[in-house]
Amino acid sequence: MQVWFSDQTDGFCISCRVKAVLHHERSSYQEICVLDTDVFGRMLVLDDVIQTTERDEFTYHEMLVHVPLMIHPAPRRVAIIGGGDGGSVREVAKHPEVGEIFLVEIDARVVWAARTFLPTISCALQDGRVKILEEDGIAHMATKREEYDVIIVDAPDPVGAAVGLFSEEFYRSCCRALRPGGLMSAQVESPHFHRELVVRMYRTARRAFADAAIYTSCVPSYPGGYWAFLLASRNEPLSLDLRGDAKELETRYWTPEVHRAAFALPRFLQEALEVVDREVSGRG
Ligand code: SAM
């Protein structure tokens, strides 16, 4: 008998054959499931939505993390909001100039599941620079002033406890929590299937921060495979250039060329964002 898992969030399915259910529980926040699959390897699923898989997680985590960290001239203190699987922590930990990494994850059971079943993703949670805070990222950021050089919003879809991670109030808190020159990156869903959300988050960032840009990566296990990210800066103008002393990193997806190419957007997306640019500059 074959067992298949289907992520049906967007009115169509991403299905994959399951070899084993390694873990299943209902935490205080969500249903947590770790599956072993034929094609994607081990997979973390929260409330029936694929979060990360061994096969393609690097395409997401490397682009969420290295784009801001390779632009910021001196990233010392980094906060990750969500991201309990540890993939973003692993990528931040590759930067020797980062002295402190704060993982602000609301659900300690996700961290436990990742440590137990996803060792290749969670392997840097042991790094001495990492502090894990079991807190709501929205409340955390609301109290911070000029604390972080880079904030990475590694959020799930905007449902449940994550809804506020896609709000203007949260983005304003993040901007206040950044030190001068600070940058924020965030995953903002699919340009095809959540285009209104991508545009709304760009508009939100243009209002809450001094400047912002959208970039993309390919994440095969997410709906449509083509995925959008937001980069926002406390100061104007937002530079997309790699810092001069950027060292070669051990990566599988990010390269200086991919970094630059990620900001080249297809016309349908570029035109949608230009409407926001005109609105924000008062020419709409
Ligand atoms: N890469 C993933 C994606 O795009 O679907 C996100 C992965 S990560 C597992 C998302 C984490 O955010 C979850 O573990 C969830 O518990 C956490 N989370 C949700 N809302 C949160 C909040 N308000 N504060 C902190 N963490 C939150």
Description:
With about 280 residues, this protein is an alpha/beta fold. About 30% of the residues lie in helices and about 30% in strands. The protein contains 9 helices and 12 strands. The chain has helices spanning about 55-70, 85-90, 110-115, 120, 135-140, 170-175, 195-210, 255-260, 265-280; strands at about 5, 15-25, 30-35, 40-45, 50-55, 75-80, 100-105, 130-135, 150-155, 180-185, 210-220, 225-235. Helix 6 crosses helix 7 and helix 7 (about 195-210) packs parallel to helix 9 (about 265-280). The longest helix has 15 residues, at about 55-70. The structure holds S-adenosylmethionine. S-adenosylmethionine binds near residues 46, 83 and 165.
